[in-house]
Design a protein that fits this description.
The chain is built from 22 helices and 26 strands.
Length: 792
C-alpha cells in the first residue's frame, strides 16, 4: 500500500522523493553552516592580559593592544550586577525573543513627541549586536538589522551567553570596557564583591558612560544610581536599611590603579600569553607579604646605593611558584632599572654552583665529606683563585670547605673532577644560560665565571630536594619527571631536569652540610626557637661585589634571593651573607614550618670507618678512626695517603734508618704528615699538628727534600706587574720547610740574596729572561727552580 501511495504521488504530482531528500539535506546543511560559521556577532578586539593568583584573585593586568582596559569575559555575571542591569535596561530579558515590541513602540512615540531620538528601545541582546557593529549609524534600517540579528542571537546562543557578552563588552567610561575591568578600575575589587550601590552605579554607566568623568555631570550619575536603588527597594529586592546605606555611598572620583604586587610576573605573562586570562600558582597573600619584606630591605640597602632585589619562592613537591618578586619598586629618585625582571636575567653565579660539584664528586666516589682538600696558594694554567678572606688553612675537610665556601679547595676539586664533566652536571641541572663549551669558562666556572638566572638556580636546588624526597629508602619513587618551576596552574613544564649523575645519598650529604652554614648575626641562636626552620642554604658573591645571592632549601620550600644593582654597578658590602641572606631568612619566617627534614636514604648509604685526622678511608697506618655515613660510591675512594710509618731512635726524638742506627733500638710509629706547603698553613690553624721529628745527624736520606715552593706554585713563566709609577714590580717567592725553625739561604743565578728563618718569603726583581732560583737550608738540602720572566 505504501509503495502504491508513493507511486501515485510520483505519477500524478511529479514528486521525486530522492531529489527532495537531497534538497532537504542541503537546506539543513546550509542552516547549520550559517549557524556555525556566521554567528550573529563577533568581537575581535584585543584583550587585556589578566593574571590571577591560584585562588582567582587579581594579581595584575596589562592594557590591551588598542589602549583599552578590556578583560576576557568571565564565566558568569554576578547576581547583584545582573539584577541591577535587568531592572535598569531590560526587565523582560528572559521573556522576549531578542526584541521587545512594546519597548520599540514606546521609544518611537517618545522620539516623535520630542522631535529627536531620545530613546532606542533596545534590549540587552540588541545592544550586544550594536556593540559588535561599530560605526553603524542609528537609523530605522540599522534598527531592523539589529532586530533580525537579535532574534538570530537568541536562537543561536543562550540568554546567559548574551548577557555575559554584554557585561564583557559594554563601555564603562574612558578606556574601560566590560564589567570586570570596570569593577577593578573604579572600586578596586572583583565584580562578585561589589556592594548594591556599586553594582547599581556600574549598571547605569553603559547607558551614559560619559557621566563617570570627574567634574562632569556627577550629580546626574548619582541620581541615576539612586533611582535604580529606589526601584530595587520598591520591588522588594533590597530592604530599607540596605537602600539607605547604599545611597550614602560615594561614587568613584576616578579610576584606581590595578594591583601591582606582581608587576614583573604580569609582564612575563603578557609576553607569553598576551590577551589571555591566566590563573597562576601564585599565592596572593604570600606574594603581598614577600613584597613588603623586599620593600623593607630595599629601603635599608639603598643607604649603600644598592637599589635592586628579587625573590622567588617554590614549593618543593609540586614545583609551583608561590611568590614571584622580580625587582624592587621604583621608590628612589633616578632610573634604577626597576622594570627589569631580575628573575629571568643572567647574572654571575658567585659560589652558587659549589654544592653541585660537591654532590657530583660524592656521587662518583671521588671524595668523602670528611676528606682533606688542599687549601694553599694555587695557580692552575695562569688562573690564581683566592679565598674571600685571602687566608689559607693548608687543608680542610671537603664538607667544611663547602660550608665555609672556600674558593681554593673548590677550584682544586673542580680541576680534579674535570671541567667538562662538571659542565655536564650543570646541563642536567637545567642551567640554560651556561650554554658555551666548558673550556670557555675554565676553572672560574665554580667561582662565578658563568652567568645563571635566579629561575634556573631555584629550579636546580628544587630538583635536588625533590629527588631526595621521592626516595623511600629502598628504591626511587619518582612518579613524574622533575621539571622546571610551574607558574600557570594545572600546567606541566616541558623542561625536564634529570639529575642522573647525582644520587640521593650524595644529595642528602650535600644538603646536610649546607644546613650547617653559619647564619647571619640576626639569626644567631635560631635553634632555640621552636618555630625555626632547619634550612640548607648557600650564598654567592660575584667578582667586584656586583651580585649577592642566597638560596635556601627545606623539604617544603626553596627560596632564592638576588640583591644588587640591575645596571651591574658593584658596591662595597654587597656580599651574599650580609645582604641576600637576611632577606631570604625573613621570607622563610613567613612560611609555615612543618618541622620536617629529609630522611637519610640509608639504602644507598654505608656506615664506614675513616681516619680521624684525614677524614679518608683508613690505611693500615691509621691508628685512630671515626665512623661516618657515606654514599655507597664512597667505598671507592682512595685510602689515606698522609699516614705512614716512621722510624725513631729509642728516645723517640730523631728519625733514623737502619743504615745509621742499631735496628734493635729503632722505634716505629705511625705519623700523620701533610706535604710541606699544606703542613705550613695547616699547623697555623691546628695547633695539635705535629711536624716530623728532625733527622738524627748523618741519617737523612739523600732523596728527601724538606723544602717546597708555595708561591708561585707553577712558576715556569712569570709576568711581573708594574707599579703605579710605571716601574717594574717584584716577584714574591714563598717557600716552606718541614722544620719550622730552619734557616734558608737564597741564591738567584749564583748571586746570594739573603737568608730567611721561620717565614720564608723573598721579593725578587729579575729582568726578563730565564733564571734559576737556588735555596739551601742549614743542613745542606738544596732546592732548585728554573723560571722565566716575561713582559706583557
Amino acid at each position: 500500500m505504501w509503495r502504491k501511495f508513493l507511486k501515485l504521488i510520483n505519477d500524478e504530482l511529479g514528486w521525486k522523493p530522492g531529489r527532495s531528500l537531497i534538497a532537504v539535506v542541503m537546506f539543513l546543511s546550509l542552516v547549520l553552516a550559517v549557524r556555525q560559521f556566521l554567528p550573529p556577532y563577533r568581537f575581535n578586539q584585543p584583550m587585556s592580559t589578566v593574571v590571577l593568583d591560584c585562588n582567582g584573585q587579581l594579581l595584575g593586568a596589562q592594557i590591551a593592544a588598542d589602549g583599552q582596559w578590556r578583560f576576557p569575559a568571565s564565566d558568569d555575571v554576578p547576581e547583584k550586577f545582573k539584577t541591577c542591569l535587568l531592572q535598569f535596561e531590560d526587565q523582560y530579558f528572559y521573556r522576549h525573543p531578542g526584541f521587545n515590541p512594546l519597548a520599540l513602540a514606546r521609544a518611537a512615540f517618545q522620539n516623535v513627541m520630542a522631535g529627536k531620538i531620545v530613546s532606542g528601545g533596545s534590549t540587552i541582546t540588541m545592544q550586544v549586536i550594536r556593540l559588535s557593529r561599530k560605526g553603524k549609524s542609528r537609523n530605522v534600517r540599522q534598527k531592523v538589522i539589529e532586530i533580525f540579528l537579535s532574534v538570530y542571537s537568541e536562537v543561536r546562543f543562550t540568554k546567559e551567553r548574551n548577557l555575559r557578552q554584554y557585561a564583557s563588552s559594554a563601555p564603562f567610561g574612558g578606556n574601560i570596557v566590560g564589567l570586570e575591568a570596570a569593577a577593578w578600575r573604579y572600586f578596586g575589587r572583583s565584580p562578585e564583591n561589589l556592594s548594591w550601590a556599586e553594582a547599581a552605579c556600574l549598571a547605569v554607566l553603559p547607558n551614559a558612560p560619559a557621566l563617570i568623568h570627574p567634574g562632569r555631570n556627577r550629580d546626574a550619575l548619582v541620581q541615576k544610581r539612586n533611582n535604580l536603588l529606589g526601584k530595587l527597594l520598591r520591588k522588594g529586592i533590597i530592604d530599607q536599611i540596605t537602600y539607605e546605606l547604599a545611597i550614602e555611598e560615594a561614587i568613584p572620583e576616578k579610576p584606581q590603579p590595578l594591583p601591582a604586587g606582581a608587576m614583573h610576573l604580569v609582564s612575563r605573562m603578557n609576553l607569553n600569553e598576551a590577551g589571555q586570562q591566566i590563573t597562576t600558582t601564585i599565592d596572593l597573600d604570600l606574594q603581598t607579604k614577600v613584597s613588603q619584606v623586599v620593600d623593607r630591605h630595599h629601603h635599608m640597602l639603598a643607604g649603600n646605593r644598592i637599589f635592586n632585589a628579587a625573590v622567588l619562592v617554590l614549593k618543593v613537591t609540586s614545583g609551583e611558584v608561590v611568590a614571584y618578586v622580580g625587582n624592587t619598586k621604583p621608590t628612589f629618585p633616578g632610573d634604577h632599572a626597576n622594570q627589569v625582571d631580575i628573575i629571568q636575567r643572567p647574572r654571575s653565579s658567585g659560589s652558587l654552583l659549589k654544592p653541585f660539584l660537591f654532590a657530583a664528586m660524592l656521587s662518583e666516589g671521588e671524595v668523602l665529606p670528611t676528606a682533606l682538600v688542599a687549601d694553599i696558594p694555587t695557580t692552575i694554567s695562569s688562573f690564581t683563585p683566592k679565598n674571600f678572606e685571602v687566608t689559607y688553612d693548608g687543608a680542610v675537610p671537603a664538607r667544611e670547605a663547602l660550608i665555609r665556601s672556600l674558593n681554593i679547595p673548590a677550584v682544586r676539586m673542580l680541576s680534579s673532577y674535570g671541567q667538562s664533566r662538571f659542565w655536564g652536571v650543570l646541563q642536567e641541572a637545567g642551567f640554560s644560560t651556561i650554554d658555551r663549551p666548558a673550556e670557555h669558562y675554565g676553572l672560574s666556572l665554580i667561582l662565578g665565571g658563568a652567568e645563571v638566572t635566579l629561575w634556573d638556580a631555584c629550579a636546580a636546588y628544587q630538583a635536588m630536594a625533590k629527588k631526595l624526597l621521592e626516595f623511600d629508602g629502598q628504591h626511587h619513587l619518582q612518579r613524574n619527571p622533575i621539571t622546571s618551576p610551574i607558574l600557570v596552574k594545572d600546567e606541566i613544564s616541558p623542561v625536564v631536569i634529570d639529575l642522573k649523575t647525582l644520587d640521593e645519598a650524595a644529595i642528602f650529604l650535600t644538603l646536610d652540610a649546607m644546613k650547617s652554614v653559619r647564619r647571619p648575626d640576626a639569626e644567631a641562636g635560631w635553634e632555640s626557637f621552636l618555630n625555626s626552620h632547619s634550612i640548607a642554604w648557600k650564598t654567592g658573591t660575584s667578582f667586584g661585589f656586583r651580585d649577592a645571592w642566597a638560596v635556601g632549601v627545606t623539604p617544603d620550600y626553596v627560596i632564592g634571593v638576588w640583591v644588587g644593582n640591575a645596571d651591574g654597578e658593584g658596591r662595597p658590602g654587597l656580599i651574599g651573607v650580609f645582604t641576600a641572606a637576611p632577606l631570604m631568612f625573613d621570607v622563610f619566617s613567613l612560611l609555615p614550618n612543618s618541622g620536617k627534614w629529609f630522611n637519610p636514604p640509608y639504602d644507598k648509604m654505608e656506615h664506614i670507618s675513616v681516619c680521624r685526622q684525614s677524614g679518608m678511608r683508613p690505611s693500615p697506618h691509621c691508628d685512630e678512626t671515626d665512623s661516618i655515613w657515606v654514599n655507597q660510591a664512597g667505598l671507592n675512594t682512595t685510602p689515606c695517603p698522609y699516614h705512614k710509618p716512621i722510624h725513631l731512635d729509642d728516645e723517640e726524638k730523631y728519625r733514623v734508618t737502619a743504615d745509621c742506627y742499631p735496628p734493635g733500638k729503632i722505634v716505629t710509629r705511625s705519623w700523620f704528615e701533610l706535604p710541606p706547603a699544606m703542613a705550613w698553613y695547616y699547623k697555623s690553624k691546628n695547633p695539635f699538628y705535629r711536624s716530623l721529628p728532625a733527622w738524627l745527624p748523618g741519617c737523612q736520606p739523600a732523596d728527601e727534600n724538606p723544602m717546597q715552593l708555595v708561591w708561585p706554585d707553577k712558576p715556569s713563566k712569570i709576568l711581573v706587574p708594574r707599579e703605579l709609577d710605571g716601574k717594574m714590580g717584584e716577584v714574591i717567592f714563598e717557600m716552606v720547610h718541614s722544620q719550622p725553625t730552619a734557616e734558608i739561604f737564597w741564591y738567584l743565578n749564583n748571586e746570594f740574596l739573603g737568608t730567611t728563618r721561620n717565614i720564608h718569603k723573598k721579593g725578587i726583581q729579575p729582568p726578563p729572561g730565564h733564571h734559576q732560583l737556588v735555596l739551601m737550608d742549614e743542613n745542606g738540602n738544596i732546592f732548585t727552580q728554573a723560571f722565566e720572566i716575561v713582559s706583557r
